[in-house]
Amino acid sequence: GTELKCIGVFSSKPLFNGSRFSFEAYCLRGPAFDNPSVLKPFLKRVLEEFSASNTGSVRIAPYWESSEAERVLAELAQVGFQPCVPQRRCTETGRIDITRSEGELLASLSQKTRKHIRNTQNLGVEILPVTDLTQAMKGFNCLREMRRKRGLPPLSQREFEATFHHVLKNRDLGILYNAQVNGAYLGSIWLFRNSRVALPAGYALNHEA
């Protein structure tokens, strides 16, 4: 089969520039990759895809180690990407070292977070990896409803199913988890990852649970 070397999921939103209307494509977390050499051809193909549509700009948020910074920035510049000056408050992110023991991880969290974790354990909440499309669609349906209520553009079920089958199901460059208690679905989170870091790509909550 085909070996996946880079993965990124893009969304789009309306972009207004004076009297001109177009779309901005953005990848909030990623692309994820192991070898920086795959980033340039991957992004060139992405730009080719979006150039065929009414897309005015493409925004990405890849992760790399500090030792790779110079090389990755050069690769991005060759494709046409430049560092973005935030026009608004950016989403705050952080990195958690999961090579530590469970006790060390818990000790590094705030008292409030530790309390929430203990409560979920006492309630019997289970976090399970998903390999079945029927279970995966629970997260998609919750996310689609949440976006509908917020007036956001609808999600493509075809694209979600393709992402699940090619990326999340095999748990190689991505993974999807469902949370449940006593068989009742609570929510989902899906991540993309390489050999060094896992990037959250989306989550959904069942507000009726």
Largest sheet: 4 strands, antiparallel
Strand order of the largest sheet: 6-7-8-9
Instruction: Report the portion of residues in β strands.
Output: 25-35%
Number of strands: 9
Helical fraction? 25-40%
SSE-based structural type? alpha+beta
| End-to-end C-alpha gap | 39 Å
Order of helices and strands: EEEEHEHHHEHHEEE
Low-confidence stretches: none
- Overall pLDDT level: 82
The tally of helices reads 6
Please tell me how large the radius of gyration is.
19 Å
Explain what you see.
By secondary structure, the protein is of the alpha+beta class. Helices cover about 35% and strands about 25% of the residues. The protein is built from six helices and nine strands, in the order E-E-E-E-H-E-H-H-H-E-H-H-E-E-E. It has helices spanning about 40-50, 70-80, 100-110, 110-125, 135-150, 155-170; strands spanning about 5, 10-15, 20-25, 30-35, 55-60, 125-130, 175-180, 185-195, 200-205. A hairpin with a 2-residue loop joins strand 2 (about 10-15) and strand 3 (about 20-25). It starts with 5 loop residues before the first strand and ends with a strand.
What are the defining features of this structure?
9 strands, alpha+beta, 6 helices, 209 residues
Q: SSE layout and pairings?
A:
Layout lengths: L5 E2 L3 E7 L2 E7 L5 E2 L5 H13 L3 E5 L9 H11 L22 H7 L2 H13 L2 E4 L3 H17 L7 H12 L5 E8 L2 E10 L4 E8 L4
Parallel strand pairs: 3-5
Antiparallel strand pairs: 1-4, 2-3, 6-7, 7-8, 8-9
What is shown here, in short?
With 209 residues, the protein is α+β, with helices and mostly antiparallel strands. It has helices at 39-51, 69-79, 102-108, 111-123, 133-149, 157-168, and strands at 6-7, 11-17, 20-26, 32-33, 55-59, 126-129, 174-181, 184-193, 198-205.
